[in-house]
Amino acid sequence: MKVIMAGSRSLADFGLVLEGIKTFPYQITEIVSGGSRGIDLLGEDWAKQMKLPKTRFTANWKRFGQAAGPLRNSEMSEYADALIAIWDGKSKGTEDLIRKMQRREKVVHLLEYVDADPEP
User: Fold this and answer.
1) Smallest Cα–Cα separation from 74: which of 103, 44, 105, 97?
2) Is the pTM higher than 0.85?
């Protein structure tokens, strides 16, 4: 499956990425990323380690302003088969992507860390 790896920037922990992948019940054949720091880039790192292809959808902030993130999420949700979302319960971008994948009736594997403290 082509799987989006996305999540809240406050949860930039490779261990969480590994947990999401370990508990994902399908075979991952490609990682899809929005290229944001944190979970997105850590997912790309995992794909590189596993020698899997990765596809990055970059938001065009200069051209589209605040609409760039939701537009990128729409493109990713159309392209990918599934989403592994590592969410702090606050990130609007991650929430938007989860909803878009659900509307398309695609697999959403959600790891939610609502009370997570980003700083040790």
Assistant:
1) 97
2) yes
For residue 2, how many other CB atoms are within 10 A of its CB? 16
Nearest Cα residue to 19 out of 2, 10, 34, 7: 7
**Angle, helices 92-103/68-79, rounded to nearest 10 degrees:** 40
DSSP notation for 2-37 = EEEEEE-GGG--HHHHHHHHHT--S---EEEE---T
Q: Are residues 94 and 7 in contact, defined by beta-carbon separation less than 8 angstroms?
A: yes
Per residue in 24-67, pLDDT (tens digit) is: 999 999 999 999 999 999 999 999 999 999 999 999 999 999 99
Please report whether residue 84 resides in a domain: no
Domain with 48, as residue range(s), is: 2-62+70-79+94-112
Distance CA 56, CA 44 (A): 9
pLDDT at residue number 25? 97
**Domain count along the chain:** 1
**Residue 117 pLDDT grade (very low, low, confident, very high; cuts 50, 70, 90):** low
